[in-house]
Amino acid sequence: MKKLLLLFFIPLSISVFAQQPPMTIISSWDFDNVGAARKFIETYQVPELDRLVDEGKILNWGYMQHYMADEYNIIYWYELSG
Fold this sequence. Notes:
By secondary structure, the protein is an alpha+beta fold. The protein has a single domain, classed as Cell Cycle, Chain A, CATH 3.30.1070. It is built from two helices and three strands, in the order αβαββ. The protein has a three-stranded antiparallel beta sheet with strand order 1-3-2, covered by helices on one side. A hairpin with a 2-residue loop joins strand 2 and strand 3. The longest helix is centred in the middle third of the chain and has 21 residues, at about 35-55.
């Protein structure tokens, strides 16, 4: 049985590593001052991350805002080549 499992997993692992789809990294931050957070993002992070996309160092990026009760969250995602 062990030989059968090894024969199944070796070709599967080789095909997974051969394709290497883009990697997505997600991070979430909780902010108290909504205005300051948005100003910081638009002033500093947007131009820098757009520059990294233009240079080909990252494939894409974005951020989302989430309001719930008294929380204000910003969720970032970055897409990197495998």
